[in-house]
Amino acid sequence: MNNVKKSFSIRDMENLSGIKAHTIRIWEKRYNLFSPERTTTNIRTYSLTSLQKLLNITLLYHNGYKISKIAKIPESEIPVLVREIVAKKSEKSHSTNAFKLAMINFDQSLFFNTYNSLLAERNFREIFHEVFLPLLNELGLLWQTDTISPAHEHFITNLIKQKIYINTEKLQIIEPTRKDKVFVLFLPENEIHELGLLYLNYEINLKGYKSIYLGQTMPIENLVDLMKYYNNLHFVSYFTVSPTKEQLEKYIEQFENDINKVADCELSVLGSQVQHMNNLQLPDSIKTFNSLERFIDHL
Fold it and tell me: What is the share, in percent, of the chain residues with pLDDT greater than 90?
């Protein structure tokens, strides 16, 4: 446990809980809810216990408890109240906080226990959309503000990937029911951000289609080989960092020359580079989607 993050700045507390630093200071001063330590330069630092307490208080606060009332609740009873609320209502907020703590502490058991508790009342698809997607959207901000390190991000995303693999495999043992197209999922050269693509593979299989998952850093020329075996291919890719804004036009031209001059195929593109693609004159065969949900609706 030597690598566990045990000390948090007030900015970390704000980023992880969603409660403004100014409000945390007020709660600390007026209600004595937290007891931060001070560095030699008089900067507040908070313990993991304080973070856990703040996350629990946040859940109570968002469920109608006034902070003045929360302050009077014995500290040992706060987790009990949280569990009661979770039992009566959706586990979404509690689960998100639990996943954050699992990430911060590299705690695999907490991740699996939280996931399994959600699975008792939701299917995988609901968990991904209602809990994992909002959590993943937060990771970018937490990483940018140094609240978490790249190691934290890799830890939690790889655990989520495991769940995608498991649930996709359950679908892949069933013979595809829709034969009008075959989906080929790939990432361009130098692109390694594949979590979104992995999930789309799950959705495509859920819809009854056959998919061929090629994964990371796949050159266009290697896609041509597939056209020897199928004549109804639909390519799907995520452009997160590659190709860059400056390379997009050339990439599209190469795809058209190497793929669509051989056969009539489509390419659906998602990811942050889509914003730049929308400024280009795209051929009819290339479609862009600014969210995972929009692509799923289009399937």
Answer: 47
Question: Which comes out higher in pLDDT, residue 263 or 50?
Answer: 50
Task: Please tell me the distance from the alpha carbon of residue 220 to that of residue 187, in angstroms, as a whole number.
Answer: 10
Structural tokens at position 181: 């197209």
Has domain 91-173 been given CATH number 1.10.8?
no
User: What is the reported pTM?
Assistant: 0.78
**Helix or strand or coil: residue 163?**
helix
Cα 76 to chain centroid, rounded: 32
Query: Please, what is the average pLDDT of the chain?
Result: 87
CATH number, span 1-89:
1.10.1660.10
Architecture per CATH, domain 176-298, reads as 3-Layer(aba) Sandwich (3.40)
For the chain, give the percent of residues with pLDDT over 70: 93
Tokens representing residue 107 in the block:
């705690």
For the chain, which residues make up each domain, given as ranges? 1-89, 91-173, 176-298
- DSSP state for residue 295 in the 8-state scheme: H
State how far the alpha carbon of 38 is from the alpha carbons of 42, 119, 240, in Å: 5, 41, 40
Question: What single string gives the DSSP state of each residue in 92-151?
Answer: HHHHHHHHHHHHHTT-HHHHHHHHHHHHTTS-HHHHIIIIIHHHHHHHHHHHHTTSS-HH
Residue 140 pLDDT: 67
CA atoms within 13 A on the CB side of 185: 22
